[in-house]
Amino acid sequence: MKPTADLYDEHGDDLQSCTTQFRSFGARTSFEGAVTTVRCHEDNVVLKATLGEPGAGRVLVVDGGGSLAAALMGDLIADLGASNGWEGVVINGAVRDVEALSKINLGVKALGSNPRKSRKEGVGVRDVEVSFGGVTFTPGCHLYSDADGILVTRA
Ligand SMILES: O=C([O-])CC(=O)C(=O)O
Predict the structure, then answer these.
(1) Which cofactor does the UniProt annotation name (predicted)?
(2) Residue 50 CA to ligand 1 centre (angstroms)
(3) C-alpha of residue 4 to centroid of ligand 1, in Å
């Protein structure tokens, strides 16, 4: 993938740039793909089910409302996503199992970490438009992520 800075220089504000200062947790520090979305709050059932499907090169964008009170993904769910062919996961929320995540061949960006796990009640929605960091993530848009940040095509 081209560096996001070069992509921005080529395409300018045709690309949205996310201002959220994510941390990178996965072994893959640069990733891109078509976006699928989940919105949930401290409950990761829908996220896990989504990463249980064939990823086919997609990136999962999860709007956890910015909550750092519970981890939406740990190493088991990340492993599931990597083995199903997902390119990466961007979580506006927390992860756990940070040491193990750093060895999994998946892009993982999240706000931070918390050893406390999420609820398993299944409250969450798929394929909705989500927004954070000044960016609207529409299902099917294209996302580019590297150490500089995240760029997203406009719908
Ligand atoms: O079970 C969970 O909530 C998340 C987790 O720890 C994992 O993915 O390993």
Answers:
(1) a divalent metal cation; Mg(2+)
(2) 14
(3) 30
For 33: left if phi > 0, alpha if psi spans -120 to 50, otherwise beta; the answer is left
Q: Which fold has domain 4-153?
A: Glucose Oxidase; domain 1 (3.50.30)
β-sheet bridge partners, residue 40: 124
pTM of the model: 0.98
Residues 122-144 as b or e (16 or more Cβ within 10 Å = b): eebeeeeebebbebebbbebebb
Scan for tokens 């009640």, then name that residue. 121
Using a 6 Å cutoff on CB, does residue 16 contact ligand 1? Answer: no
ipTM above 0.90, yes or no: yes
Sorted by where each begins, the domain ranges of the chain are: 4-153
pLDDT single digits (tens) 15-26: 999 999 999 999
The rounded distance, in Å, linking the Cα atoms of 42 and 106 is 22
Up-side HSE of residue 145: CA atoms within 13 Å toward CB? 32
Sign, Cα dihedral of 59, 100, 67, 4? negative
